[in-house]
Amino acid sequence: MILLSIAVVEEKNLVNAVVKYAFLSLTFVLVLVLLKAPDVALSAIVVGAIIIGAFLFTIREVEK
Length: 64
Description:
Elements: H1 2-10, H2 14-34, H3 38-62
Helix pairs in contact: 1-2, 2-3
């Protein structure tokens, strides 16, 4: 997860950074499920989806 976090920060293309962030969020959710915390995993899914949507919307608006 640390390497994926570094890859997100170092990515120059913003859309690719968001895709890598999505994989990072998925990894985090899988860790939470393995730790038997499904309620926290569901919360992380919702928050991650909102953040990814906001990032993509912002990138699209800035590039206009």
